[in-house]
Amino acid sequence: MTKHKTLNYRVEAGGKLSGRLRVPGDKSISHRSIMLGSLADGVTEVTGFLEGEDSLATLRAFRALGVAIEGPVAGRVTIHGVGMHGLRAPGAPLDLGNSGTSMRLLTGLLAGHGVAVTLTGDSSLSGRPMKRVIEPLTRMGAFIGATEEGTAPLTIAANQPLKGIDYLLPMASAQVKSAVLLAGLYATGETSVTEPAPTRDHTERMLEGFGYSLQREGPRVSLIGGGRLKATPIDVPADISSAAFFLVGASIAEGSELLLEHVGINPTRDGVITILRLMGADIELANERLVGGEPVADIRVRSSHLKGIEIPEHLVPLAIDEFPAIFIAAACAEGTTTLTGAAELRVKESDRIQVMAEGLQVLGIKADPTPDGIRITGGLLEGGRVESHGDHRIAMAFAMAALRASKTIEILDCANVNTSFPGFVSLAACSGLRIEAQE
Ligand code: S3P
Fold it and tell me: What is 27-235's CATH superfamily?
C-alpha cells in the first residue's frame, strides 16, 4: 500500500449545511460483498461499492488470493467467484493497511483454508488487539501466529481441520462474531456465536442472501459448515457511519437542512439516530425500503437545539463508530453528556476517548475521559489546531465542529479519511462546510 502524504484540513468557522447528497457506500457491507462474492459459485455484481482504502484493501487481498475482480468503476465491481475452496496462496504477505475489518474477518475466513497467508497492516492496525479472533479460531483448530502482544503480522497456517464451537463472545464485536462464523463455514458440525449485546448483523444477512442457511435465536447465531454460497447481486447502501458527520453538522449549524439519500438504517447500526434524537435532533426518515436484505431510507435533518444526555449503554454497540461525531454534538449541546460502557472505543483506529477529549479541550470544551467513556459539557467552541492521530472519523468529526466554532479549526493528519470516505472534502464543501485540504 502506498505511503500517504501528509494532509491537513483547514476549516473556517461558521456556515450551515444544505442540499441533498449521497455519501459513499457502506464500508462493512462492501468488505463482506468481496469476501462472500469471492467464495461463491458464479458471478456477483456489486453496485454502490465503497471505493475507500479499507474496502479496496479487501478487494486487493482477494485478487492476490487468485480471484478475478473487475472494477471498481463508479461503485461497480464484478467478482468471478472461485467457490469455497478455490483461493490460491498469494505470492507475498497481504497488506491490509488501516483496516481492522479486513484483518479480523480474513483471519476467520482463511483459518480453515488450504492456503498459508501472512496478514500485515499499517502502524495503527499493527497495534490493535487480534487475540480476540485468535483465541476462538485456535479453539476451532486453526493455527495463527502473532506477535507476543497478540498483534499483526498474523500468519495463518494452511489445511488446518476446523471443528465447530459454541462461542460466547466476551465483547460486543461484529468483527469477532463474523470471524468465527466465516471460519465455521469450513468447520465440521455446528458453529455458534452468542453475543452479549446486538452488533451489526451484515455477515448474517449477506450469508442468507448468498443462500447459506443460518439459525438466529435471540443473541445466538449458528450455522453448519460445509455448505456453498450462490452468487447474488449486491446493492450497497450509503454508509450511516459517513452520514453521521452530516447528521451532526446539520443538527449543530443554525439554518441547516439536508437530505441524505439511500442510507442504510439496519437496526444494528442506527444508534446514532436514536442518540441524536434523544438529544433533541430533528431527524426524519422517508421512503423506507428493503434493498438486498438491508433496510434503507432517505434521511432529512434540520438544525435544532441539542441538550446533553446520559447515553443509554445498550445503544453503544449500535453507534460504536459514530461516537467521534456524537461527541461534537455533545460539545454543542446544552448541559452535560455522559457516555459509559464504551471501553471498546479505546481500541479503534485510535484511542477515540483520549484523542477526542484532547481535541475538545484544545477547542475550549470541558471533556473528561473515564476508563469506559467520557463526560462532555457543552459550551462555546473556540478555534485551534487538533490532532486526528491518523484516525479518519476523528478528522471528519472535528471538521464538522467548525460549523459552531468562533475561529478556524485546523486538523492534522487527515489522509486516512480516504479509508472510509473518499471525496469527503468536496462533498462537505458543496454542502456548505468551509473546508480546504492542505498538503
Ligand atoms: C465492523 C465492526 C465494528 C466497527 C468497524 C466495522 C464490521 O468493529 O467498529 O468499523 O464491519 O464488522 P468491532 O467488531 O471491533 O466492534
Answer: Enolpyruvate transferase domain (3.65.10.10)
